[in-house]
Amino acid sequence: MTLPVPQTVCAHCGTDIHAGGRFCCAGCSAAFDTINGLGLGQYYTRLVRDPALAPNRPDPTDRWDLARCVTTDQAGLHSLTLAVDGLHCGACVWLIETALGREPNVIRSRVNLTTRRLQLGWTGDVADGGRLVWLVESLGYRLVPFDAARLAAASDRTGRELIWAMAVAGFAAGNVMLLSIAIWIGDSQGMGPAVRDALHLVSALIALPAIAYAGRPFFRAAWVALRAGRTNMDVPISVGVILVTALSLVETLAGAGDAYFDSACTLLFFLLIGRVMDHRARGRARATAEQLLALRHSDVTVLAADGTTEQRAAASVAPGTRILAAMGSRIGVDGVVELGSAPLDTSLVTGESLPVLATPGTTVFAGTINLGATLTILCTASGAGTLLAECVRLIEVAESRRGRFVELADRVARRYAPTVHLAALLTFFGWWGFGHATIEHALLTACAVLIITCPCALALAVPAVQVLATQRLFQRGILLKSATALERLAKVDAVVFDKTGTLTVPLPELMPDPSRDPADLAAAAQLAAGSRHPLARALLVASGPVVAAEAVREVPGRGMEWGETRLGSSLFVGVANPPPADGPELWLGRPSRAPVRFRFAEALRPSTRETIATLARMHIGASILSGDRRASVSAIAGQCGIAAWQGECTPVEKFAAIEALRQSGHQLLMVGDGLNDAPSLAAASVSMSPASAADLSQTIADVVFQGSGLDAVSETIAVARRAQAIMRGNIALAIGYNLLMVPLAMAGLVTPWLAAAAMSSSSLLVLGNSWRVRK
Amino acid sequence: MTSILGLILLSLTLGLCALAAFLWSLRAGQYDDMDGAASRILFDDQPPKR
């Protein structure tokens, strides 16, 4: 039941098309036929498109060396895990799983929508995996296989240990609390001491093994800190828990007094919930960042001596190997061009916005994109002297210089732990020396002080806020990878931006010209449609969809030729006395007609100006450090209202500039995407990268943001400042609670139920306060 | 007294069962894909594999 309106979007991928057709390209048409042929046409009615994702246009061009990624078990079942790009909703999961399930030899096909991975299991020929991958790719998804070795390394052992500990602590807390309530109520209703002791003993039997098991993460961290002569939040927690348990055990065995097993178990349970959430939130942000990187990888085409080609992972290509880099592909290795000439997009490496022509002898770096004809490249070792080696050396310098950042929670713990231990000591001597109590009674009261000050709310004060802030940013596509990034971001008072790819978008923009004939633009776009050159693509964006001219010849580094019509540089088109160029430009030359000039300007990322203005309102100064030519840096600086800028910086100069700013006492945020920014990212106190950044930069950056808008920068800082304020509020609340309770404990008035109530209510108060960061 | 002990043992057994069930579901990967599970319930049943 199609509606009788002229179709304006592609029936498969939903991109805008000309009226008349049904599909945007042959790939979409084929995918539509495949899906309907399988009887899975319901996919289109179920699909809820995510506008943030690229359309699922089938373009199965990647060829993978699957052998290193497939694992085979004894029964002959081959398994493979792949990252999937283009999952919009549950309908995509259904489509992929059902389409693969129709294959007779597929045993397992399961898409994980959270981690965006596909697990594939099949029997028979290993090489059949290639066909299965191709089947999913022809539906419009992009698949990248995960290395079996890397997958095994990424298994999350800490997370599993924390969850198991949390489950055990939860079980113990629940059951001990049931018994404790019985004891408290029984005490007031005349329960006999024999029953009470029996109940205490049962509590001890549950609590002791549970605490020994669930407390291990804390005990271990506290032991490590103590051995290094430091103290952190885990030290007072461990001391508190161990003392509470020991005291309760002594009381139970003596058949007298109070036991605090419920407090110890509940405390561990609450703290472990906090740890698990913290671990998950950051683990998810990290996994997403890793997925983004993995999706960009592609195998390298290695050219053997006998002329045959083979796909291999970039990391396994040895120096001295020849590789082929096809048009539009990302060059995966460092090397020297041997054969061919083509313009290269080096913006991710050097920050230069215009393509550079590579000819035999030109050194190329991993991360550059070939925009022209296929190049043969001799792979060289990334030895000393190359740009990459220089960057890596600077990063090491920066990381050795960066001292260990002391977290807010640890700074508090450094004062807190000695204070409460001193208070307990004073209590003991107060009762024993001046109060003339027995040693046992003085010791019990001192322990009660330690129990009441065991920092449950304090230990939750920081992680609770971090979890909620991380999740909030995650929903916006901002991935917080480092645990301490929020605290460092909150202190930022200056931001340094890279220009190309950070302030600007990768594609330039055609400058409007009222005197231009729209027909000229359409004619030029017909030629441009066949090229990957950024200017040609920008022209195409400005003109909208056109029918590409056939048999267009591209002259690398110069332009396009179609019969006698030419599109390219003024020299190539043969313009007599061209006006001086003030930026990138293209000329369209046709026989017996005046040449037409198309001028381009670099386009700012959306909301760049607003972001700079917002930062200024937050009293954060912005500046630019760029490797690009001074003229274009100055133009961009003027456009987005940044007064301080520097152009033509080498990576070393950028690094030195950041160091100088740091020396003068600034807390710097560096935002950059290029390989040349990587040392500066490491040198700044905190760093951000867009998801389009070079691999090394993304790995180093504390925060990776997706999407095209630069407002992610100001939003992240705003959330960080808010989170910091709430963390401080939480700490004040927790300490306030202690100030209220410690005098009671010192006076010997604390009972087990009062301890349990105080601990739970203060923790809930802190959690409730943390929730405000989500607003 | 004996009835209390019996009841305590019973409640502990039930609690341990719940703990075992949770740990089993954790190992079985039931919490690995929360987003996927939310949309999976809307699919039609797939024909069983041969």
Explained architecture:
The complex is a heterodimer of chains A (775) and B (50). With 775 residues, chain A is α+β, with helices and mostly antiparallel strands. Among the domains of chain A are: 25-155, Alpha-Beta Plaits; 509-601, Calcium-transporting ATPase, cytoplasmic domain N (3-Layer(aba) Sandwich). Helices cover 50% and strands 14% of the residues of chain A. In chain A, the strands form five sheets. A seven-stranded mixed sheet of chain A has the order 15-27-26-25-16-23-24, sandwiched between helices. A six-stranded antiparallel sheet of chain A has the order 7-6-8-14-9-12, with no helix packed on it. In chain A, a hairpin with a 4-residue loop joins β3 and β4. The longest helix of chain A is centred in the middle third of the chain and has 36 residues, at 261-296. Chain A is elongated. Mean pLDDT of chain A is 83; it is low at 1-5. Chain B is mainly alpha-helical and 50 residues long. Chain B has a domain at 2-29. Helices cover 66% and strands 0% of the residues of chain B. Chain B is built from two helices and no strands. Chain B has helices spanning 2-27, 34-40. The radius of gyration of chain B is 19 Å and the shape is elongated. Chain B starts with a helix and ends in a 10-residue tail after the last helix. The model of chain B has no long low-confidence stretch (mean pLDDT 82).
Notable features of this structure?
heterodimer, A: 775 residues, Calcium-transporting ATPase, cytoplasmic domain N, seven-stranded mixed β-sheet, B: 50 residues, mainly alpha
List strands and helices in order, with pairings.
The complex is a heterodimer of chains A (775) and B (50).
Chain A: H1 26-37, H2 42-46, E1 71-72, E2 78-85, H3 90-101, E3 106-112, E4 117-122, H4 128-137, E5 142-145, H5 148-153, H6 157-188, H7 193-214, H8 216-227, H9 234-254, H10 261-296, E6 300-303, E7 309-312, E8 322-325, E9 335-339, E10 342-345, H11 347-350, E11 356-358, E12 363-364, E13 369-370, E14 375-379, H12 387-401, H13 408-434, H14 439-452, H15 456-475, E15 478-480, H16 485-490, E16 494-497, H17 499-503, E17 509-510, H18 518-528, H19 534-543, E18 553-555, E19 559-562, E20 565-568, H20 570-573, E21 585-589, E22 596-601, H21 608-617, E23 621-625, H22 630-640, E24 644-646, H23 651-663, E25 668-671, H24 678-683, E26 686-690, H25 695-700, E27 703-705, H26 711-746, H27 752-770
Parallel strand pairs in A: 16-23, 16-25, 23-24, 25-26, 26-27
Antiparallel strand pairs in A: 1-2, 2-4, 2-5, 3-4, 6-7, 6-8, 8-14, 9-12, 9-14, 10-11, 10-13, 15-27, 17-22, 18-19, 19-20, 20-21, 21-22
Chain B: H1 2-27, H2 34-40
